[in-house]
């Protein structure tokens, strides 16, 4: 692909303030393994969420031409050195595509709608909100703006590429989705999937709100010489092809089977790499067993997926929410740290505030 289409040159400097919101997303086909500059080893597909949101404001002012990046970052009102270095890496990566950044100072203020310590991955929403602000400052035309925002968000965090649009997005080239690309995510056209998926709820059970032992970025690296790497990437391509058909047919039993297989495969890869590690918590296993028992008893189409941590995402259509949420409140909250859950649902992606 000719990446120069993503380069924006300005004759004039920019002085502007922009604020955007972007949601988190939950992967159904998992991105786990990358190469080159933030390119995925396999295509992934996710539901974009609505309530787990980052809101980011940029104040951009011109400065005399430099070669370095000049910015201040405040998270929930405080400067934070840990986030600072992640954002510096992001700016360095996007500089070839947004060269104007080198002669501007950018003040960034960001906050999350969900508790920072909840163990919810915030990099997807945070990087998608930041990338949306950068593209908004460039005042690009609408269609192209989304594509560039996703392209830049990917350079901050791979999964962030999928948070620009919604409700269903695909990142990574796959024959099953014509316009798909390794460089940015694309929304799956709503005419290609059953409308039931636009009603999906995601209740997140906060099993362990602690810091992860191994970050996702380290996890991706461990896929490089993983004994099951080749088989996994092949499987992900096949699962993507199957899932696209399942979404179109609205086959909920097949949906459940593939989603849970992807979740358990992700954690199996963590357990079988070198060094190996386990991010599931005993209560993660309790919840998984409860989901299987409840589904067998009630035949309700609830399934679980896992992110790279101990938390469990429960996915189900809105029409069954009353019964499923009653079970969550009475049976599953006991497995959550301080009984905490987050109720979310599929949503439409980043927007201007
Ligand atoms: C398990 O996007 O957080 O959530 O590109 O290094 O920032 P980096 O990784 P990240 O990895 C997400 C991994 C995952 C699966 C997924 O979201 O597809």
Tell me about this structure.
The protein is of the alpha+beta class and about 350 residues long. Helices cover about 35% and strands about 25% of the residues. The chain contains eight helices and 14 strands. It has helices at about 80-95, 125-140, 140-155, 215-220, 230-250, 250-270, 280-300, 320-330; strands at about 15-30, 35, 40, 45-60, 70-75, 80, 105-110, 170, 185, 200-205, 305, 310-315, 340-345, 350. The strands form three sheets. Strands 1, 4, 5, 6, 7, 8, 9 and 14 form an eight-stranded mixed β-sheet that branches. Helix 2 (about 125-140) crosses helix 3 (about 140-155) and helix 5 runs antiparallel to helix 6 (about 250-270). It is globular and about 65 Å long. The model has no long low-confidence stretch (mean pLDDT about 95). Bound molecules: ligand DP6. The site of ligand DP6 has 17 residues, from helix 4.
Largest sheet: 8 strands, mixed
Low-confidence stretches: none
Percent of residues in helical segments?
A: 25-40%
Shape: globular
- What integer value in Å does the Rg equal? 20 Å
Reading the helices and strands in chain order gives EEEEEEHEHHEEEHHHHEEHEE
- Secondary-structure content class: alpha+beta
Output the number of helix runs.
Answer: 8
Q: Mean pLDDT, rounded to whole units?
A: 94
Got a strand count? Answer: 14
Beta-strand proportion: 15-25%
Q: Name the bound molecules.
A: ligand DP6
List keywords for this structure.
four-stranded antiparallel sheet, binds ligand DP6, 353 residues, globular, alpha+beta
Q: Any chance you could write out the topology, listing elements then pairs?
A:
Elements lengths: L15 E14 L4 E2 L3 E2 L3 E19 L7 E6 L2 E2 L1 H14 L9 E9 L10 H16 L3 H15 L11 E4 L13 E3 L12 E6 L10 H6 L7 H21 L2 H20 L10 H17 L4 E4 L5 E6 L3 H12 L8 E5 L5 E2 L1
Parallel strand pairs: 5-7
Antiparallel strand pairs: 1-4, 1-14, 2-3, 4-7, 4-8, 5-6, 8-9, 10-12, 10-13, 11-12
Helix pairs in contact: 2-3, 5-6
Bound molecules: ligand DP6.
The site of ligand DP6 has 17 residues, from α4.
């Amino acid at each position: 692909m000719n990446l120069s289409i993503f380069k924006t040159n300005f004759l004039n400097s920019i002085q502007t303030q922009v604020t955007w919101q972007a949601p988190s997303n939950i992967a159904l086909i998992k991105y786990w393994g990358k190469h080159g500059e933030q390119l995925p080893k396999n295509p992934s597909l996710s539901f974009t969420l609505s309530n787990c949101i980052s809101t980011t404001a940029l104040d951009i002012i011109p400065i005399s031409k430099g070669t370095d990046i000049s910015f201040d970052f405040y998270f929930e009102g405080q400067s934070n050195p840990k986030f600072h270095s992640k954002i510096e890496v992001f700016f360095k990566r996007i500089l070839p595509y947004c060269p104007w950044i080198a002669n501007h100072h950018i003040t960034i203020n960001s906050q999350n709608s969900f508790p920072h310590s909840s163990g919810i991955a915030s990099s997807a929403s945070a990087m998608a909100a930041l990338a949306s602000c950068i593209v908004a400052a460039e005042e690009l035309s609408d269609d192209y703006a989304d594509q560039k925002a996703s392209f830049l968000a990917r350079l901050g965090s791979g999964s962030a590429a999928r948070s620009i649009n919604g409700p269903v997005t695909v990142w990574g080239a796959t024959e099953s989705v014509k316009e798909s690309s390794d460089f940015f995510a694309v929304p799956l056209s709503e005419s290609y999937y059953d409308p039931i998926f636009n009603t999906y709820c995601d209740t997140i059970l906060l099993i362990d709100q602690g810091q992860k032992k191994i970050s996702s970025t380290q996890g991706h690296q461990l896929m490089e010489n993983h004994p099951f790497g080749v088989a996994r990437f092949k499987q992900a391509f096949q699962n993507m092809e199957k899932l696209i058909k399942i979404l179109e047919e609205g086959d909920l039993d097949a949906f459940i089977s593939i989603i849970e297989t992807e979740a358990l495969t992700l954690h199996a890869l963590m357990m079988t790499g070198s060094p190996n590690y386990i991010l599931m918590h005993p209560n993660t296993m309790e919840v998984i067993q409860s989901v299987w028992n409840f589904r067998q008893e009630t035949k309700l189409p609830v399934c679980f997926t896992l992110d790279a941590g101990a938390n469990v995402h429960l996915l189900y259509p809105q029409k069954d929410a009353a019964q499923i949420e009653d079970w969550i409140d009475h049976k599953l909250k006991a497995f959550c740290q301080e009984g905490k859950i987050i109720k979310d649902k599929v949503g439409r992606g980043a927007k201007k505030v």
